[in-house]
Design brief:
The protein is α/β, with parallel strands linked by helices. It has five domains: 2-91, Gyrase A, domain 2; 110-263 and 343-382, HUPs (Rossmann fold, 3-Layer(aba) Sandwich), CATH 3.40.50; 269-342 and 387-401, no CATH class; 420-514, no CATH class; 521-656, Isoleucyl-tRNA Synthetase, Domain 1. The protein is built from 27 helices and 15 strands. Strands 10-11-6-5-4-12-13 form a seven-stranded mixed sheet, with helices on both faces. Strands 1-3-2 form a three-stranded antiparallel sheet. Strand 2 (76-82) and strand 3 (86-91) form a beta hairpin. Helix 1 (2-21) crosses helix 3 (57-71), helix 12 (270-279) crosses helix 13 and helix 25 runs antiparallel to helix 26 (604-623). The chain is globular and about 85 Å long.
């Protein structure tokens, strides 16, 4: 709302400057002034234009202020000039509040653009861990933000079902444990926990056993070709692990539209088609000598962005004819943009009906149905910073085939690692040696089995939160305590992982994440619960549904039992000393916050916006008691502001994926 007001005022200032000077003027920036007494908004355009044209900036600014005051600008009460020519504006508070309230039912725009977001993409070889949660939470929130902005969003989870990690688990079951695919299919849950141990065991042996290393090469080929008992075992492992991953993420309200399996890229010849397009360029060619003899290589030496690498060139097809991981990823990305004639077929993922309401689709080899996935206008891949080189290679592949616009619109959403504080590591049963105890964080290692399973973390947080809820609400039943605790755990995890900038290494701390005070998810939840409680108490006191009465008063022709539409409400807001008005202005910056989060790839912008709203509301709660209001106009104004806050914070928490409990 404030974003739109700024744009409209900026256009009026631009038009006034052009009329006064007779010169073309760029659309100016309308910003917050450094001090509140200067007004609600400010613009320095008169100074900049005057300097360019050699005019007196204060005189030009005064001319602009006079012209705009004479013609009137919607939402602006007064224009004034300060200093050498700063244009300051005082807004019509009642008009701004009315515009804010009108905006809650306006719906989302339709940009007519499709955004494809790939996130999570965990190797299907063991349980998800805390590092995977950062990826999934950021990707899910990024998708929610863009739906709010008007994009058609399609969310993918890429399943590497033919990679080294799956091959190692297959070897673990077939060679070390001597189990058949059917025996592995019948193993009890949690299967992903068992695979965590199997993978750790085989990784330790693989490092020292050359026979196992040779076996791995054979298993990788069998997985790619879909051959025999090896491929059957791979299918069993992947299906069971992926089902567990989907359930884990569903606990945080994270879902997907499509799971794309790497093996289908090969089996359906998507890579073959992509390879033919790449080979048409001189940049991708067969190497006939040297260490890459017999390999097809993308030559990147000297290409912008690859200049300072020790070896920039990237092998796409090895000398044995096997496509590398990045080659298959290139084919997948070509498909995302609809650049391949070949396509996947699809089917619903099976066996998840008990866990989530709507299971995602998965690529299905040649046995599924045709559907309209892909064909994106823009694609975003959420993957950690260590993959920056490979993501750059994928982007360069678009340049190689002449698809420059796709290259520009392809985005690597990079982020840093997640560790644990020593206290949290110890609480979760991870041994902390003397050296690590003195550090701010304890690093994880999936290959060594050294890490925190995501389900364990979520469960532990839920149990701690439930205990706290029970202490605060002794009358609450065990089932409700557990349900509320689970909601608090979601808020604790999601907010903690979202409040830091992408390039920050996170040391997750359970006590910090679960705190009801400070910058945490539960703190923001509590503000939402408090707002709901205000309306519950008011409804009891006044004998009517107050929230419903507000909505009725805001509707055209509706009843107004609370006096919401009376002139006195606007008059009281105009005379407010600033705290109420500050909260209204903050509520109006919602669109700015989500747009900035989207443009900067920084979800932390939205997270901190939600926290700041909660802080401002808590100050409002203590300074403006509604039932003790001086009169009806005062009470109606405070009810309106509380209602606006409740609606807006609900929107913010929905984007962050944080539920609102009934009680805390």
């Amino acid at each position: 709302m404030m974003q739109e007001i700024r744009r409209q005022i900026a256009a009026e200032i631009q038009h006034a400057l052009e009329e006064i000077t007779g010169e073309a003027v760029d659309l100016p920036r309308v910003e917050d002034p450094p001090r509140r007494e200067m007004g609600d908004l400010a613009c320095t355009a008169a100074l900049q234009v005057a300097k360019r044209l050699g005019r007196n900036p204060r005189e030009l600014g005064q001319a602009v202020a006079s012209r705009l005051s004479e013609q009137g600008v919607e939402g602006v009460l007064e224009f004034s000039i300060a200093g050498p020519g700063f244009l300051n504006m005082t807004l019509d508070r009642a008009a701004v509040l009315a515009r804010l309230l009108d905006g809650f039912d306006s719906g989302n725009p339709d940009l007519g653009m499709k955004l494809l977001i790939e996130h999570t993409s965990i190797n299907p070889n063991k349980a998800a861990h805390i590092g995977h949660l950062r990826n999934a939470c950021m990707g899910d929130t990024f998708a929610r933000i863009h739906r709010e902005l008007g994009y058609a969003v399609e969310v993918h989870n890429y399943i590497d079902d033919t990679g080294v990690q799956v091959a190692d688990v297959v070897i673990g079951f077939l060679d070390l444990r001597g189990e058949s695919p059917q025996e592995v299919r019948d193993l009890p849950e949690p299967f992903d926990y068992l695979c965590w141990d199997v993978y750790t065991d085989i990784s330790e042996r693989m490092a020292e056993d050359t026979t196992l290393q040779e076996r791995r090469r054979d298993v990788l080929l069998a997985l790619e070709h879909g051959e025999g008992v090896v491929a059957e075992m791979g299918t069993v492992v992947v299906e069971r692990i992926v089902a567990r991953h989907i359930r884990t993420m569903a606990r945080l309200d994270i879902a997907y539209d499509l799971l794309v399996k790497e093996g289908d890229i090969l089996r359906l010849d998507l890579w073959s088609e992509a390879f033919e397009r790449l080979k048409a360029s001189d940049q991708v060619r067969l190497v006939t000598e040297g260490k890459h003899e017999g390999c097809w290589v993308m030559h990147l030496s000297g290409v912008k962005g690859f200049e300072n690498l020790e070896e920039a060139d990237k092998v796409l097809v090895r000398s044995n004819g096997v496509a590398t991981y990045v080659a298959k990823d290139i084919a997948y990305h070509f498909w995302k943009y609809g650049l391949l004639e070949r396509d996947f077929t699809y089917r619903r993922l099976r066996g998840l009906e008990d866990a989530i309401a709507a299971a995602p689709y998965e690529s299905a080899g040649a046995s599924g149905e045709r559907m309209e996935f892909g064909h994106a206008d823009r694609a975003v891949t959420v993957i950690d910073v260590r993959q920056a080189y490979l993501q750059a290679v994928v982007a360069q592949a678009f340049e190689v085939i002449g698809e420059h616009e796709a290259c520009r619109s392809l985005t690597h959403f990079a982020y840093e690692m997640v560790a644990l504080t020593p206290a949290t590591a110890e609480a979760l049963g991870i041994p902390v040696d003397e050296a690590s105890a003195g550090r701010s964080f304890v690093e994880m290692s999936g290959r060594r089995g050294y890490g925190v399973k995501a389900d364990d973390l979520i469960s532990e947080l839920g149990q701690r939160a439930s205990a706290e809820v029970a202490t605060r609400n002794p009358e609450m039943g065990a089932e409700e305590c557990a349900s509320t605790g689970a909601q608090l755990a979601v808020a604790a995890v999601r907010y903690f992982l979202l409040k830091y900038t992408r390039n920050a290494v996170i040391a997750f701390d359970m006590d910090d994440a679960l705190s009801f005070e400070g910058e945490t998810g539960p703190y923001i939840q509590y503000a939402a619960v408090r707002a709901a409680r205000i309306f519950d108490k008011l409804s009891e006191e006044l004998g009517r549904d107050v929230a419903g009465a507000v909505e009725g008063a805001l509707a055209e022709g509706g009843d107004d039992p609370l006096g919401i539409r009376s002139p006195g409400v606007g008059e009281r807001l105009a005379s407010d000393d600033g705290e109420l008005w500050d909260l209204i202005l903050a509520l109006g910056r919602y669109q700015e916050a989500i747009q900035l989060a989207a443009d900067s790839l920084e979800i932390a912008v939205l997270a901190k916006y939600g926290f700041q709203l909660a802080q401002q509301f808590n100050r409002f709660y203590h300074s403006y008691p509604i039932l003790q209001a001086a009169d009806g106009a005062d009470r109606a104004l405070r009810v309106l502001v509380a209602y606006a806050f409740q609606q807006r914070l609900r929107d913010v928490l929905s984007l962050l994926g944080i539920p609102i409990p009934d009680r805390m």
